[in-house]
Structures
1.
Amino acid sequence: MPTAADRETRREILKFLRKVETAWLGGRFDELRSCFREDAVLLGADLEQRLEGRDAIVDSYAQFLREARVLAFESEAPIVDVIGDAAVTVTPWAVRYEREGTIYDETGGDLLVLARDEEGWKVAWRTLLPRQSADE
């Protein structure tokens, strides 16, 4: 049974995840930068592309928003597992965006590994989990 401290930690993490989401969607990249550890890693959905470092990761978010116009974004309730000062989260989402005149509809999830330090929770590692449709 979760304790009051467990519930509070989960609330902190959910609030943090919302901050990450609203910062990137709002193009507030300084705020987004503060959500990542300096040594954070982003692993592409293909498990081959890799970005290392907070600045490179935040620049990838900025590049996406320069090249695409987000038309709709919805996220589902995150799955959160806390292990001491670390947490693993999965947040399913759906996005519709326009890039170079083409509309894209994608669904997937963000898998994040979070680490808590004296400043609070930070993203240490991220990858994208693309969802396969039933006919693929």
Note: The radius of gyration is 15 Å.
2.
Amino acid sequence: MPGKFCVSLTVAKDNPDKATVAFVVANAAVASDKETVVFLSTEGVRLAVRGYAEDIAEEGFAKLSDLMTNFAGAGGKIYVCSPCFKRRKLDETALVPGAVVVGGAKLVEFMGESCPSVSY
């Protein structure tokens, strides 16, 4: 089933359950041959920093860092909101694999017309 899919994620350690489920869904989408983007904004941008997600593990799910690694390894892309990332003074040289800091225009370009999405 070709096409696109977007998962928008605004949380990190402040809501590890939502953060984990977002990447479970993203992995399902990329495994279904969807061109998949996870868009990290507000507190979610912290997940883009290498090592940050290492201690996030919700019962019944794989570790969040493993879900993120698997997602990127399967070709998924992680778009990181540039203003949100800069506001938190995070290190752009320490991004996880698959992550790229982008402006809102890049997300709009990806979603274009009729791109299903979910938000967490």
Note: The first helix runs from residue 16 to 31.
3.
Amino acid sequence: MITKEDEELVEIAKELIKQHYHYGKHHVACAVRMKNNLIFKGIHLKANVGRATICAESVALGQALTNGEKEFDTIVAVKHPSPNSESSEIMVVSPCGVCRELISDYCSDMKVIIPGENQIAKRHIHELLPSKFE
């Protein structure tokens, strides 16, 4: 169930990508809420060599951990449309497979806000990464 706090977290991520969107460099933003309600943010760092690219989720999780926080609650990522997209709406996106692994490694109890059929939804990370390699 999506709460008012979840909707606020989505808005924080959307505002972040509005501020920092740069075609070819930054098109995804992430916000993570801790159990103590602190919020950490990150943006996607695109590189010319694909393997060097860093997802926004990694940056946000790193921000939290760097600040000594370890009690994660909920995470969301949003994507800014490219200039030639039909839609101009910033949308919630699901974490990639690598991010799902990273989230589950560092935050085994994390909830993830994802796109749903008609509205956003919230799932436990283990629902997004079943039969995780341990």
Note: The mean pLDDT is 93.
